Amino acid sequence: MNQEILNQIKKQDYEAIQNSITAFLANHIKKSNARGLVFGLSGGIDSAVIAHICAKSFHDKTLALIMPDSKISPKEETEDALEIVDSLRLEYKLIDINLIHAQFANILEPEEKALGNLRARIRASILYYYANLRNYLVIGSSDRSEQMIGYFTKFGDGSADILPIASLYKTQIRELARYLGVKDTIISKKSSPHLWHGHLAEEEIGISYEEIDIALYCIVDKAMTVERAAEAAVMDKDKIEKIYQLYKKSEHKRIMPPRL
């Protein structure tokens, strides 16, 4: 793995990035004639970054929804989310989606991945319920790494009115989190959508976020071929090819449905 490329990705003006995100959110609130912002807070790094930015500039116009499924969500994750809203003094609601999910599961044929994605779609429905109730905009917390390889649930955590951090790679999100003062234990914890027991992002994808970011930077940002990217990134060609295929095959998740 080419550390020089990784350092290049991470070396950014994070004060300017924070200001750009704040201006982006303010502009869309005004343009949409909305009253505020609502987002899902999992206790992970992406939503923690959203929480810190909203708390600083939109404190009285922000609602955080903490939506664990008590059957599978780690207790520590919910505790981290509660600690974030407590320290930032953000308005929040804690909603256990277990009973809602169980009602669906009782009448549907079981399949772990489909039922896992259903959890993400239930959370999206609740986010849009409160957005509808309050005339708020739903903030999506997907970063560029996950957006580009399609690592999100379509009409689940991929559903949003605005995506303020979708241009930042996961490694850049970690640096922004440090700048914002996000707790080190949240920055260093392993990412997970927690859609089923023991669900970890890097294990499911099979590649680290550092490798994903370097590969995407070479293939997408620098328009390199897979062969040239593997050489520049000092990475196994099969890994680069896997990331490239994830990028190409997930394109349908990033565009509007085809229409006649």
From TrEMBL:
- Functional summary from the UniProt entry: Catalyzes the ATP-dependent amidation of deamido-NAD to form NAD. Uses ammonia as a nitrogen source.
Write out the coiled-coil annotation as residue ranges: none
Which residues of this UniProt protein bind deamido-NAD(+)? Answer: R121, K154, D161, H252, K253
Pathway involvement?
A: Cofactor biosynthesis; NAD(+) biosynthesis; NAD(+) from deamido-NAD(+) (ammonia route): step 1/1
- UniProt-annotated binding residues for ATP: G40, L41, S42, G43, G44, I45, D46, S47, K170, S192
Recorded family membership: Belongs to the NAD synthetase family.
Query: Which organism does this record belong to?
Result: Candidatus Nitrosotenuis uzonensis
Q: Which InterPro entries match?
A: NAD/GMP_synthase, NAD_synthase, NH(3)-dep_NAD(+)_synth, Rossmann-like_a/b/a_fold
Annotated Gene Ontology cellular components are: cytoplasm
The name this protein goes by in its record: NH(3)-dependent NAD(+) synthetase
Determine if RNA-binding is one of this entry's keywords.
no
Q: Which reaction is the catalytic activity of this chain? A: deamido-NAD(+) + NH4(+) + ATP = AMP + diphosphate + NAD(+) + H(+)
